[in-house]
Each structure stands twice: as C-alpha cells, then as structure tokens.
Please model this.
Amino acid sequence: MTDRESSVKQWVNDFTGALYDRACYKLGDDELAKDLVQETFMAAYENFGTFEGRSNAKTWLMSILNYKIIDHYRRQLKNPVMSENDRNFFDDDGRWKIDKRPGPWESEPNLLDDMNFVTALRACMEKLPAKWLAAIQLKYMSGKDGTDVCADMGIAPANYWQIIRRAKLNLRECLNKNWFKL
Amino acid sequence: MNRVMDNIMISCNSATILVEKRLDAGLTLSERLKLRLHTSMCSGCTNYQKQSLLIHRVWQRDIMPPVTDNTLVLSDLKTTILKRLEMFNE
Model:
C-alpha cells in the first residue's frame, strides 16, 4: 500500500465524523453532507501531493470541505428561482403596495402553539427557494448572526436581511392564501 | 428642518429591513428610534413586525441541529468512502 493510500484511509477512520458533523451543521441536509464529505476525501486523495509537508491533516480536510460547501452555495446562486421579488411588495417610494400591506393576523399570540398553524408554515417553507432555506437554517441552527452566515455562504451582509425579509414576505403570502384564507 | 425630517422618516421598505436586522444583529439607537417612529404611524409595518417575530419564534423553536446517534450513519459512510478510494486504483 502506498503512503497516499494508507494516509487517506487513516484519515477516513479518524476524521469522517468531524467532517460529517461540520457539513450537516453548515448545510442542514444530511444527504448532501454525506456527498460532500465523500467528495472531500476523493479530492484529498487526488491532491495528496499538495499536502506533503503540511502538519495538520484535519485542518487541511476541513478547508477542502469548506471550499466545497461554499461552492455548493455559489452554484445555487447561479440558478435563481422565480418568486415575487421586493418590487412586487413596495412601490417606488418604498411604501407597501395597497394589496400587499400586511393586515393583522387573528389570534396572533396563540398561533405559536397552534400545531396546525406551524404545520401550514412548514408546508409554505418547502416552497421557498433552496438558497433562502439554506440561509435560514444556517442562522438558526448555528445561532450565529447574519454577518457570519454571509461569510459562510459567500454573500454580502446587506443581502442577508433582504433574503430573510423576502422569505417572510413570501411565507406571509402563502399563509394568507392557505391558512388565513384571505 | 426638512432635512431633519427626511432623515428621521423612513419608508416601509427600510422599516421592514430594520425589523429583520433587529431580530438578527440588533439596531443602533438611531435605527431603533426611526423604526419606532415609523411603526407608530404605519399599521402595515406594525403588523409585519408582529408577524415577522412570530415566524422568528417558530424558527427558533423548530430549527435545531440534528441530535441523532450517528454511529451507523458514520460507519456506512466510512465504508462507502473506502470502497470509492479502492476504485481509484483500478
């Protein structure tokens, strides 16, 4: 067995767990996480030559994984999904368009504990573009604030709150139609 | 006086962004005042703020890191990876 083979096999045994945990954390998708961890080891094997002389295999593997995660998000950015953008909600003066102005939701304080409402919200979330869901999951799973999420995803900080707003505006529309029946 | 007014009065577009910024990273004193002034006069944004907070609370409660026993998953994953590495040499 070559040095390359024995080293990488050892890394698989030692580091798969840590890499998989990190990938799950950053992607919110365990199947995708498994794929990217595999790709990480394949890349490490192919590029073993560039590792020679470095000390920390785990750090090197993590950096390959990080690159693949960012690359995944960048590819998603290139495939925008059709959905109502901000201009559909606000007019040129930045005011709510008449038909988009949020009205009150009945029994608002109790909705949090209404499992039917939560189910309806989850169903609406599935209709959102993957990139928005990724931004939401990344933030709420990691407890980081928007600026860290942006660094992880390779987007500008100002865009993060716009993505969240866009997501919530679309969720409101979906809930208005399907839950509140407006 | 007009310039001061222009600076204090923000649009609904700006207000809703501040609502999200507040939930995420917090607002400066100036931003807080502007938002509060705006929502005191705008029912649409007042409702948006309440509903945004509601959705935020659902997400906080529901979106959690997976707390599962990974042993089997990891064992399968390692086997898969080792097999693929073997195929590299064929």
